[in-house]
Design brief:
Layout: H1 5-17, H2 40-48, H3 50-155, H4 158-196, H5 202-218, H6 220-225, H7 227-237, H8 255-280
Helix pairs in contact: 3-4, 3-8, 4-5, 4-8, 5-7, 7-8
Length: 287
């Protein structure tokens, strides 16, 4: 077996210096010494230490080589694992990034659709509001004309007395209509609150709308004023809600408040028209 260079040098050094296990501080003849005459006993003790030292050196050399080989293998395996992990993480990162971009594109498209829908609702609401304002002005004008006719009739003597009596007879109808409008206002406020609420189910709102339609359909005053069609218009187009922190129910809705003012003017106007028709003959059942 070949011995490493370091071991050979160690052996030569031992031979040159005559290393022994002697302790110079011990008394004479207590140490193991070589035979002065060159006997075999002294040489046996000198060379007895050579075998363990050679074995120890060989073991150390073999252990060092094996350790270095194992370290190198572990290092190579570690580099391979880290490279595979880096590739896997890069692939997952690209996959997640692509998915996030796709999701963002879909959300942007949906947001644009909702924005266009809101703009459409807003335009429809503005158009409806302008129409209601125009009708309100027309009703106000008709009301002023009725008031003028009323004053002229009152000033005309007997006709004024007859008109006054007719107005008194129609006061009961006016009170019923006013009571109906007050009830509708409260129920419309509750309905709009249900529409804007995130907690109440849609079925609850639909039930409230159904009850309102049945109420005005069965009530003679509601049928005479034609409130059912107006309510359907409110249910279809009034989607205005106040902010989420709003605590005042009456801040919800826009179209319904325009209709309520319109109905109040219509009731007042209808009262005078009924009184005038009462002077002429039976009142036709028309709006």
């Amino acid at each position: 077996m070949l011995v490493p260079v370091g071991i050979s040098e160690c052996i030569l050094l031992l031979f040159k210096q005559g290393i022994s296990m002697n302790n110079l501080n011990d008394p004479p003849r207590w140490n193991i010494r070589p035979d002065p005459q060159g006997g075999a006993d002294g040489g046996k003790w000198n060379y007895a230490l050579l075998v363990p030292m050679l074995g120890l050196a060989a073991f150390r050399w073999i252990w060092t080589r094996e350790s270095q080989r194992q370290i190198q293998e572990i290092k190579v395996q570690y580099d391979q694992d880290m490279s595979a992990l880096a590739r896997d993480m890069e692939f997952k990162y690209k996959e997640i990034l692509t998915e996030n971009r796709r999701t963002a594109a879909v959300l942007e498209l949906e947001l644009e659709k909702e924005r266009q829908r809101v703009l459409g609702y807003r335009k429809a609401l503005v158009s409806q509001s302008q129409q209601l304002l125009a009708e309100r002005k027309q009703l106000q004008k008709e009301r002023e004309e009725v008031e003028k006719e009323k004053r002229r009739a009152v000033q005309s003597g007997a006709a004024g007395i007859a008109l006054h009596m007719a107005l008194e007879r129609e006061e009961e109808w006016h009170q019923k209509a006013k009571t109906l409008l007050d009830e509708l206002e409260l129920q419309l406020v509750e309905r709009q609150e249900a529409f804007c609420s995130l907690l109440l189910p849609r079925e609850r709102r639909m039930e409230m709308e159904k009850n309102l339609l049945l109420k005005v359909a069965k009530d003679p005053v509601g049928a005479e004023l034609g409130l059912e069609e107006d309510l359907r218009d409110i249910f279809s187009n009034d989607r205005h809600c106040a902010d989420l922190l709003n605590m005042d129910k009456r801040k919800n809705g826009k179209l319904m408040w325009l209709y309520l003012r319109y109905w109040q003017l219509q009731v007042t106007l209808q009262k005078h028209k009924r009184a005038e028709e009462a002077l002429k003959g039976p009142l036709p059942n028309a709006k």
